[in-house]
Amino acid sequence: DTEVTQTPKHLVMGMTNKKSLKCEQHMGHRAMYWYKQKAKKPPELMFVYSYEKLSINESVPSRFSPECPNSSLLNLHLHALQPEDSALYLCASSPSDETQYFGPGTRLLVL
Amino acid sequence: SQKIEQNSEALNIQEGKTATLTCNYTNYSPAYLQWYRQDPGRGPVFLLLIRENEKEKRKERLKVTFDTTLKQSLFHITASQPADSATYLCALYTGGFKTIFGAGTRLFVKA
Questions:
Q1: Do A45 and B98 touch (CB under 8 A)?
Q2: In whole angstroms, how far apart are CA A55 and each of A97, B72, B96?
Q3: Percentages (nearest 5) of helix, strand, coil residues in chain B
Q4: Of A48, A79, A89, B106, which residue is the least packed, with the fewest Cβ within 10 Å?
């Protein structure tokens, strides 16, 4: 298995909802990432896990809560989001600190 | 802070011609630089990585150059095809699992 999968593909949520995004990879990669991407903008790093431990949090608001249950799974828990949080959320993994392999993304719309 | 600039937001070329995309950066000396392709609504796909001690790297119709003195990378697609139409992102590794992406250049190849 040489891909990163993300579910759901699309998500619409209200500002009071709680939802989770899921990411999975079975390539044995030691690092996993969450990025946020707005239209016509570059991906912006949110979190990095290395060996299942959170190693980078780019000052992301606490309404985004990452979790790495095991070496293959990465979750992003969402709570009390704002409309400006609507974006494409990308998960990536890498065997080292070099090339990253991205999933297809989750398109999130916050109403 | 580290800044990456890609030469133009959009580039239109005729099929069969060579597309040349530019990436300039400031305030850093990266160990390597990467190029990714991104299609609308999808995650970036890794294309090429070039290290600071490499002047040029090739892969099929793709060629990347890296000039650490000019702080610039050029990305070439020879014999371009309509299927090459996409956004191409330059990405700079800044250390500690952090990669900064440029805003990208949207390439349109006309048949």
A1: yes
A2: 12, 30, 9
A3: 5, 60, 35
A4: A79
Tens digits of residue pLDDT in A76-103: 999 999 999 999 999 999 998 778 999 9
Cis, peptide link before residue A8, omega less than 30° from 0: yes
What stretches in chain A show pLDDT beneath 70? 1-2
Cα–Cα distance, A102 to A96 (Å, whole number): 14
Beta sheet of A18-25, edge-to-edge order? A4-7, A18-25, A73-79, A64-70
CB distance A45–B99 less than 8 Å?
yes
* Distance from the A54 Cα atom to the nearest Cα atom in chain B, whole angstroms: 11
Across the interface, whether the CB atoms of A56 and B103 are under 8 A apart is answered no
Do residue B104 and residue A33 have CB atoms under 8 angstroms apart? no
Kindly state whether A96 is in contact with chain B, defined as any CB-CB distance less than 8 angstroms: no
Distance CA B72, CA A44 (A): 21
Three-state secondary-structure class, residue A35: strand
Residue keyed to tokens 């095809």: B81
- As a whole number of angstroms, the distance between CA A105 and CA A36 comes to 9
Contacts of A59 (CB under 8 A, 6+ apart): none
